[in-house]
Amino acid sequence: MGVYYVILLGFLGSAIFFLLMSLFGPFADPWLLRLLLFGIGLTLGHSVIAMQYTTFTKISSVNMGKATTLFNVQNRLGAAIGISVNASLLVFLQNRTMSSLTNPAPYQISIFGAAIFLLIALVLTVFSRNVIQETEQAQRKAS
Question: What is the value of pTM for the model shown?
């Protein structure tokens, strides 16, 4: 299948699961929510591991410590930015509508925002196709 398609399908699957979660809302059947969360973990996990694999393919062992540090900092910073944007969106929507905590609409819109982030990652993956495939070919030649 190739690393590129694992990343691509992982982001696509994650976005679909997040979109479904935003449609069904927090008061859906608990087993449906568990299934959606499992799907998110499965698909997003494949994307993250495949990206990490391709990221470190061309890094020499001398520079591996620096590369790992940079990758982890970028990974944590990206997650922090995504969480803060979605949390801000959630607070803004709750304050704007003056709704109670039991109103699912702000939560659903916030989860929809997370799906938008995943769709942006999907688009960036499509534009990075050549780089990912070149890295994959270099790894095949090295092994």
Answer: 0.83
